């Protein structure tokens, strides 16, 4: 396959443009360098060795993961300084302990006193300490303690004072930037999250605690505000691929999106004015339903086509308006889908086909599971 044209692949296939990935990664590195903040890239979008090497510039240090499977995958391949940024799941404490005892710096996330209790009950061997980040919910509305909650400072103090535990940092994910449209709105949320986090750091300082601080999402880190330079780290991830959603939010242009799903026309349905394609939700995911004029994806080079619905292995494509000219789409015609949400789409594929300048370079194999 190496050196072959993209069209030689069996469909559906996930295609990754290596040049765009490298460019997206470099731009984020440059932005963080300019801002004077440490970049801790999130691996959740691709979950591959190759993507991680590009995002860390080959250092194999300072990453964040969403699953313990990712943590083990990277830990087994020479990565270290890994932050498992997910509210500590009690069923996985033992596996977290094993990683903490094996790596120089494996870090977990806590947002409840009971989680801290679980850690103190499982003392690490050889005098090692648990490295713990406190998760804040700064208007994101998912995991974390509210920075305004007096219990948040108490929990930070309890972590800092617990035997065999160290408070490494405070972590806030500004996923609420996903409700934004345009740079101004993105930067307003980035500013709000930064201020809430920095104010919380002041509260910690007042009780004698200093530790790292980290916020981030792809929208906020694609358009950072100056005050983010006062944080220790940022932790975006999706930027390595970007997607249609990010282009609509205003994080990037459609031109920056590094991934496509190759699909082919497999049926003509003139009675419904529709084409059938060989990509259903198993090849694309159902993320983005109802969000686009063109349905579940943007069909590259065909702005007037719409992916209206999908079943497991089939997609239905029709014109945005008017009658379909079936002669323009003979059976076998390849089409490129630009995904709405690259993280969800990538998850559907056991391998990614990497290319440069229209030629296949090889495959990346992601890790899966939890
Ligand atoms: C906890 C956490 N941190 C960081 C990120 C990275 O954000 P993004 O995907 O916007 O780059 C995510 C993404 O979902 C997340 O859940």
What does this structure look like?
The protein contains eleven helices and 17 strands. The protein is elongated, with a radius of gyration of 22 Å. It has 370 residues and is an alpha/beta fold. The model has no long low-confidence stretch (mean pLDDT 97). It has two domains: 36-240, Alpha-Beta Barrel (TIM Barrel); 254-364, Beta Barrel (Lyase, Ornithine Decarboxylase, Chain A, domain 1). The strands form two sheets. Strands 1, 10, 11, 12, 13, 14, 15, 16 and 17 form a nine-stranded mixed beta sheet that branches. It has an eight-stranded parallel beta sheet with strand order 2-9-8-7-6-5-4-3. The structure holds pyridoxal-5'-phosphate.
Secondary structure elements and their pairing?
Elements: E1 13-17, H1 18-35, E2 38-39, H2 49-55, E3 61-65, H3 68-75, E4 80-87, H4 93-102, E5 106-110, H5 113-121, E6 130-136, H6 150-161, E7 165-173, H7 183-206, E8 212-216, H8 218-222, E9 233-234, H9 244-249, E10 259-269, E11 274-277, H10 281-284, E12 297-299, E13 305-310, E14 315-319, E15 334-339, H11 342-347, E16 352-356, E17 359-364
Parallel strand pairs: 1-16, 2-9, 3-4, 4-5, 5-6, 6-7, 7-8, 8-9
Antiparallel strand pairs: 1-10, 10-11, 10-15, 11-14, 12-15, 13-14, 16-17
